[in-house]
Amino acid sequence: MTNGGKTTLTNNLLKALPNCCVIHQDDFFKPAAWAPLFQPQDQIAVGEDGFKQWDVLESLDMEAMLSTVQAWVSSPRKFARAHGVSVRLDASDTHILILEGFLLYSYKPLLDLYSRRYFLTVPYEECKWRRSTRSYAVPDPPGLFDGHVWPMYQKYKREMEANGVEVVYLDGMKPREELFHQVLEDIQNSLLNRS
Ligand SMILES: Nc1ncnc2c1ncn2[C@@H]1O[C@H](COP(=O)(O)OP(=O)(O)O)[C@@H](O)[C@H]1O
Ligand SMILES: O=C(O)c1ccc[n+]([C@@H]2O[C@H](COP(=O)([O-])O)[C@@H](O)[C@H]2O)c1
User: What molecular function does GO assign, one term (predicted)?
Assistant: First the structure.
């Protein structure tokens, strides 16, 4: 979920895991107008509620994200080099790709590609408070959290659960270090079980 601590956890994992790349879903938001002059470029719909609908799958270029994932799948080593990730020649040939995002489990073509699916959650009040301290490329207009962000979070999570998508829930209220060690251990175990 938004402000669950995804970026923080991802950055910690990137430092600890060899040959590890990341793709951020936020990099795939479709363009939006910032001024009326640019209206034809605007691909973010405005809902009946008057809010720009940022927190829906249609606002993200998921095909482009999938292509980026496929580029990694076809050559992790080349992908790592192109993204400035140093490839350790002495390490095992295992490569890891982290996808970091708030709507990763609602886009079917990606669903079967994941080895592990983690889902960080925090309670409503904490999420709202953390969000109020963030500055996004496009600042939240007043009322966006309650009017759009939170309802969309609930809707997609309900759908994900109804579709039987299995995830490992992580308590985003735990200290950063604890979350990091929990997930690192889980990744290491899942790698061991594969070999
Ligand atoms: N485990 C945690 N406990 C308390 N605050 C956290 C934790 N993880 C992240 N934060 C804080 O919450 C905010 C959102 O974190 P971030 O990692 O950017 O979330 P996300 O990428 O899920 O939106 C930041 O201010 C960050 O410092
Ligand atoms: O990054 C952007 O350009 C951007 C522009 C408008 C909105 N966002 C918000 O970014 C949120 C997802 O990012 P995050 O880090 O909170 O998971 C999502 O809730 C959107 O409302 C992000």
Answer: metal ion binding
Q: What is the pTM of this model?
A: 0.95
Q: Measuring from atom 7 of ligand 1, which residue has the nearest CA?
A: 5
CA-proximal residue: ligand 1, atom 15 (nearest): 5
- Domains detected in the chain: 6-194 (3.40.50.300)
Over residues 101-137, the pLDDT tens digits come to 999 999 999 998 999 999 999 999 999 999 999 999 8
Our measurement of the distance from residue 105's CA atom to the centroid of its chain's CA atoms, rounded to an integer in Å, reads 9
Residue 174 CA, ligand 2 centroid: distance in Å: 23
Q: What is the ipTM of this complex?
A: 0.99
Tell me how many degrees the CA angle 26-80-111 measures, rounded to the nearest 5.
50
